[in-house]
Design a protein that fits this description.
alpha+beta, MaoC-like_dom, MCH/BMMD, HotDog_dom_sf
Length: 154
């Protein structure tokens, strides 16, 4: 277990997540198949070539899902009760097959539950694709979790 208990989160801190992920064509295809999303912009190379992007895009929900997964070790691995919400999701730039993403989370709010046994933590998650010059923001969202407090963990 590597996650943090409620007391270990500090409002304003930014957590740089170490793991990164290169997104493959197979990843995108499998995610679209599993979710029954047959949007041609994700799957049809000829269709996508005629768009402003010129090639297939990685499904934005896949990008977001991978981002959440990449945050788990340093935030909620073994210390979470539940994910409560994902809010204010934006995809300002596309992700393409072969792009590598990295993630950072900034703690924006925390409060105890009414019974005082657990805590609610909100993090602003930013996802960047790595480039030769500057990293490019490709997704951002707010993730709110119900977290265990150290003294109430089983």
């Amino acid at each position: 277990m590597t996650g943090r208990y409620y007391e270990e989160f500090e409002v304003g801190e930014t957590i740089e997540h170490e793991k990164r992920r290169t997104i493959s064509e197979r990843d995108n295809q499998q995610f679209c198949d599993m979710t029954m999303n047959q949007q041609p912009l994700h799957l049809d190379a000829e269709f996508a070539a005629e768009t402003e992007f010129g090639e297939r895009l990685v499904n934005g929900l896949y990008t977001m899902s991978v981002a959440v997964g990449l945050t788990i070790p340093e935030t909620t691995d073994g210390t979470i009760v539940a994910n409560l919400s994902y809010d204010s999701v934006e995809h300002p730039n596309p992700v393409f097959h072969g792009d590598t993403i990295r993630v950072q989370s900034t703690v924006t709010d925390k409060r105890e539950t009414s019974d005082g046994d657990r805590g609610i933590v909100t993090m602003h998650v930013e996802v960047f694709k790595l480039t030769d010059s500057d990293d490019v923001l490709v997704c951002e969202f707010d993730r709110t979790v119900l977290s265990l407090k150290r003294n109430h963990a089983e």
